[in-house]
Specification:
By secondary structure, the chain is mainly alpha-helical. It has two domains: about 90 residues, no CATH class; about 60 residues, no CATH class. It contains nine helices and three strands; from the N terminus they run H-E-E-H-E-H-H-H-H-H-H-H. Strands 1-2-3 form a three-stranded antiparallel β-sheet. About 20% of the residues have low confidence.
Length: about 170
Amino acid sequence: MRTWKALLATWALLSATGCGHGEAVRREEPEAGLRVECARGDEGACGAEESREETRSKGGTVSARIWALIAQGQFAEAQVLIAESAAAGLITQQTAARMGERITLLTTRLGQVPATLQRVKDFPSQLRDHSLFQIKQMLESKDFTLATQAQLKLAEKLLEQQERLMEKVQ
C-alpha cells in the first residue's frame, strides 16, 4: 500500500511540475512518438511548420518548452535553451537548426525583404519596422490600426515566402 501511495505521489508531482507554459500540448502517440502541437492551431504565431513538430521522447519536454517560448515571442530565452539543450543532447542538431531558422524568420522585419519584393503593388511600407511575429500578432488579435487585414496578410506572405516569390518575379 505504501508503494502505491509513493508512486501516486510521484506521478502527481511529475504531472503538476510540467512545463507550465500552456502554449504547447504534448501527446504520446504509439507510431509517431512524442508530438508537440501549438495550442493556437495551424495559423498561430508559432507557425505551421512547428505546430506538429516531431521530437525525440528524450527531449520532448524541452522541445515543447522551446516551441512555446518561440510562440510567445521570447526569442532570447528560446535561443539560450536551444543552445543548452543541443549541447546536452536533449534535442537533435537538426531540431535545433529548425528552431533557430524559425526564430530568424519570426524576427525578420518587413524592411529586410529584397527591394524587388518591396516594389509590389500595395506594399505596406508603414510596416517596414515590424517583424513577422509582430505582424502575426496583429492579424491574430485583429488589430488593424496600422494596416488593413489585406496589407497584413501581404506582409506575412512576403516574409514567409520570400524565396518562392523571388523565383516568380525573376
